[in-house]
Amino acid sequence: MHGAWADASSWSGVVGILQGQGYTVRAIPNMLRGPRTDSAGVRSFLASIDGPVVLAAHSYGGNVITDAAAGLPTVRALVYIAGFVPAEGESLGELASRPVREAIPELPVVAVPIVLPDGTASSDLYLDPAKFRDAFAADVPAERAAVLAAVQRPAAAEALTETTQKAAWRDIPSWYLVTRDDQSLSPETQRFMAERAGATTVEIKSSHAAPVAHPGAVAHLIAQAARATG
């Protein structure tokens, strides 16, 4: 599952590799409206799948699967790719602002005012296209990064502030891919979340956009989780 500032096509390379290995793969859409709305949608999608599931997510998508998978016996493993792994009552914003020894630059977020269907004012959050590659996808070729910046999907402001209701990683085995060159989510914060969840952890030299830049490494970790829990 994709996170903010991406869409399901960011997983295309990973999907192709896993399909080539014989796995059935579904790229679940993420509405990016906040963890409560998004996790409810994902949970409904998961209920339509027969058989065991390895649920993988990137970035904010990790926040979503942490809630969505709780209590679902079909989900055998959680795989976080530079993902958020909140505990109950934590928000993405809290985790992202956690103090670290080596701070990363502030994300170049651009807020676009919107009005929700009930008339409430909110904001959609984008990354500044001019700074997108440096912040999100530094090891992706410039031409590809420019396309990613142009087609990025915004996250609602609520994605930063809504808190997690349940933490599926307390009961479901987890795997974590730490991206050491990440300028969107501190590698130190990634390690903290992975250790707290007791995740099997692998580190690679990558920007935040690991599913795009390093699909082989991502697919390998997902396949490892599938073999371990199958």
Task: Explain the overall architecture.
The protein starts with 11 loop residues before the first helix and ends with a helix. Strand 6, helix 8 (187-196) and strand 7 form a beta-alpha-beta unit. The protein is α/β, with parallel strands linked by helices. The protein has helices spanning 12-20, 35-47, 60-68, 92-96, 132-136, 142-151, 158-161, 187-196, 210-213, 215-229; strands at 53-58, 75-81, 109-115, 121-127, 155-156, 174-179, 200-204. It has a single domain (8-229), classed as 3-Layer(aba) Sandwich (Rossmann fold), CATH 3.40.50.1820. The strands form 2 sheets. A 4-stranded parallel beta sheet has the order 1-2-6-7, with helices on both faces.
Radius of gyration: 16 Å
The overall average pLDDT, rounded, is 97
Principal-axis shape equals globular
Look at the helices and sheets and give the structural class. Answer: alpha/beta
In which order are the strands of the major sheet placed? Answer: 1-2-6-7
The count of helical stretches stands at 10
The fourth-level CATH homologous superfamily is: Alpha/Beta hydrolase fold, catalytic domain
Largest sheet: 4 strands, parallel
The CATH topology label is: Rossmann fold
Secondary structure tally: strands? 7
Name the poorly predicted regions.
none
CATH architecture grouping: 3-Layer(aba) Sandwich
**Percentage of residues in helical conformation:** 25-40%
What's the CATH class, please? Answer: Alpha Beta
- List SSEs in N-to-C order: HHEHEHEEHHEHEHEHH
In what range is the share of β-strand residues? Answer: 15-25%
The tally of domains stands at 1
The N- to C-terminal Cα distance equals 20 Å
